[in-house]
Amino acid sequence: MTSTAKILVVEDDLDEAKLIKMVLEGEGYESLCAFNGKDALAKVGAEKPDLIVLDIMMPEMDGFAFCARLRATPGNEHTPVVLLTGVAQHIHESKYPLDGVMRADAQEYLEKPVKAEELLDAVARLLE
Amino acid sequence: MSEAASGKLNCWGFQDCAHGPGSAQPCVVATDQASNGVNGGEKAGRLCWAVGGTLSGDEVLAPCARQMNCLDCDFLHLVRSEQGRSFQLLKLARGVSDSQQLQDTIVNVESLMAIHERLRSHFDLNETVMEITGEARKVTGAQRSLVLFLKGEPPALHGQFTLKGKPRRVVMDLDENSAVGFAARYNRMVNLRDIYTANQLGGVPTFNRDYDEKCGCKTSSFLAVPVDDPEGRVIGVITVANAKKGYFSSDDEWFMGQYATEVALAAEKQKFIQQSVSALRLASIGETVAGLSHCIKNIAQALRAGSYVIKKAINSEDLQQVKIAWDILDRHIERLADLSMDVLAHDPGVQKYSKAGGLNELVQHVVDLFREEARARAIDIRFDPGKDVAAARFDAMGIYRCTVNLVSNALDACPLSDGMVTVATARTGEDEIMLSVADNGRGMDAEARAAVFGLFQTTKPKKGVGLGLPTVAEIVKRHNGRIEIETAVGKGTTFRVFVREDVPAA
The domain A6-127: what is its CATH number? Predict the structure, then answer.
């Protein structure tokens, strides 16, 4: 059981971040939130999370840019990342291309609205 | 006459063309001795369009004319304006013998050029066709003229005309024995000078008399000219019937050829417009759907996660958790309701329900709705009710949506401390009222200001839908109103919405 794992939720919407945190804590995970990419990078350095739940569309530094910086940070080359997005991919292909998901080297890609059970499954799988 | 002697440019000089006189491969225009001096040019250098161009009546030879219609050419217009009344458009040797005939030809060509100019501004194919057939009748002296377009499967020729003031439709198949069928099938002009003789001689093609019987006409002479698209495919036929002069001359044939070109241009233009409109519409629907879907997905995400947390908290009897999650859920239910109302405001069929009186009460109600949120974010929200708007007649739902959207945006724009939102109403004209919402927030730069009414343009991708301000704009447009924006980066933004008072229903 990996329920003691520490999970960083990177999401600029306070409500959504709070709810995801509650879902994760309900399963016994330790969880913390960051509301933008910069804040998240600082928390990665200070808290060393075991897994990151990451939103794509955020102001200033989006999820892809964050991922690129994360992978370049020593010790985080393989930190599991679950990408969460509500972007209509076919329309915003140019801005948020699907192959960006590949480049971001994320282990899981979930499209909103994701069921809490699905998110928990993905998290548990990646922490095994 | 050289260019230097007359001081006027020849086409090769104007076009910087390598096929002038004395070149290795002179153009037919540059060797036409017979046109020397016409319009003050050397050889046919100032009559190129009628010798090697699209008005030559022969195969187009001049390199420039293969890329364009000479009637569109700046050089023709230059020569025309330079020569004034002495301007010669056609080569006189084209079978024109007496001065009256010459005069007629010039008048007809002038009409052709005029119609070409006018048709540039037409966007409706039917209107264009009506105008062309009208001119074709006038110029050829025909009683009737008709344009038929090839369409359907199997392809048939479809035309519209007016008989005794009533619109009629006609459909003809591609029978090669009939004049129009032949013209369309073989892309060749058919000139039946005397259809009685032509029909009796048993030659093909003939004129189909069924058509006369159907419309109560008596056709004696008939000219059918194919209309082809830029790739040379026949797209229709233009016809004239019953020449006053007894039959259609070679000049008439030439003019009809020009009208066929105009019909083809008009059809191409129509096709282009239709394709552009449909592409734009699809792109716009796509963007709208994507924007809505993104917003709904985010709301649904909160509802799903919220309901999961609540269910779990109920099982573990953790009321505190239920309360936190419920508040979030509640906010998202409101967002969903707002979204549906804003979408509805964009429905062109939505009815305005106007009422008299109560504007200040309605705006006060909205301000009160947001008071709690403002307090939580330490924002001072004030309402300054106008004194002379008590009797104003307005669309309550429209003004309500405008106020909700503007106040909600203003709160979001406010700084983290000392935020201030001021809402006001006022009468600004005999039948005009104003609603203003001001914040002391971040303000907008020119770029943000320009994009402010774009659908799904939002600076807060999760919370905002990007539908609020477009909704305000749509509602204001329907009220024949206007919106003023005063903004300065770092100082704040004021939106002023001016709407005409509704006229009471009769």
Answer: 3.40.50.2300
